[in-house]
Design a protein that fits this description.
89 residues; mainly alpha; 2 domains; 90% helix; 0% strand
Length: 89
């Protein structure tokens, strides 16, 4: 049997260290990867926030529409009263 040369021993040692490094690197990347449930939770939170903002905007728009209709009705009542007053004369 032949002896292992120092160069071959060094190359083997470097290869083993490289493999350990690669394994640890992928373990690190796997640990950094966000969990699927966390992503779903974040998406749900953003959708709820978006819906809340839309509902607030819709409520404000409905309130403005109600004010516009009320103001229009008041103007029509004033005009009809004026017409009625002129017809009564």
């Amino acid at each position: 049997m032949s002896e292992i040369t120092p160069e071959l021993l060094q190359i083997g040692t470097v290869a083993i260290l490289f493999l350990i490094f690669i394994r640890e690197f992928f373990s690190f990347l796997k640990g950094r990867k966000p969990n699927g449930k966390e992503i779903e939770k974040d998406i749900l939170t953003q959708l709820q926030l978006s819906n809340t903002n839309h509902l607030v905007h819709i409520q404000e728009s409905i309130e403005k529409l109600n004010c516009t209709i009320r103001d229009g009705n008041e103007k029509m009542i004033a005009l009809l009263s004026e017409i009625k007053g002129q017809l009564s004369k």
